[in-house]
Amino acid sequence: MKGKLLISSPGLLTDMIFYKSIILIVDQTDEGITGFILNKPSDLFLYKEIDSTKKTKIDLHYGGPVSTDHFFLLKSKNKYSEILNITDDIYWGNNIKFLFSLIEKKIVNINDFILFQGYSGWSLDQLEDEIDNNSWILYENSEDDLFSLKENKSWNRLIKNMGNKYILWSNSPDDITLN
């Protein structure tokens, strides 16, 4: 499942963590599956001093409810030994100091990565059961640029492209109580 997307189904209306989520699966082991919610920007950010005259603002995304005291990064383009490969040109890791050193050296563009607080995780059987119960839609369309999915409204766009069964939900508000 590594590299695939999970789209929360409209059936997760009452789940405030995963409602309207798009999750990239970044790792699968015998112990479980790890992913990051791509489309849940938070109100939090970090400032990194690049040199004595310039600070760079780095937005944080909510990666999921597990290990929220840790930070993880999703990066495109070049491979480095400090990060793990997911697909052809997408990598992930948790060495934030390494990321900061790449920013300071101007090797990495701020748009080439997403910084997450926490991650989403399942046991193998747990995620299979949730997919079988229609909580998640396994999305295999690789035409989408993963970094374009980091916006809040990405779920609406993807669900609309999935056809008539879901089209009604494509215009639903982020807060369903407003409907």
Describe this protein's structure.
- The structure is a single chain.
- With 179 residues, this protein is an alpha+beta fold.
- It is built from 4 helices and 10 strands; from the N terminus they run ββββββββαβαβαα.
- Strands 1, 2, 3, 4, 5, 6, 7, 8, 9 and 10 form a 10-stranded mixed β-sheet that branches.
- The radius of gyration is 17 Å and the shape is globular.
Keywords:
179 residues, globular, alpha+beta, 39% strand
Portion of residues within helices? 10-25%
- Rounded mean pLDDT is 81
Total strands: the figure is 10
Series of H and E elements? EEEEEEEEHEHEHH
**Rough shape?**
globular
Structural class given helices, strands, pairing? alpha+beta
Determine Rg (CA atoms, Å): 17 Å
Beta-strand residue percentage: 35-45%
Biggest beta sheet attributes: 10 strands, mixed
Task: Specify the number of helices.
Answer: 4
**CA-CA gap between termini:** 34 Å
Low-confidence regions: none
Overview in brief:
Strands 1, 2, 3, 4, 5, 6, 7, 8, 9 and 10 form a ten-stranded mixed β-sheet that branches. The longest helix has 9 residues. With about 180 residues, the chain is an alpha+beta fold.
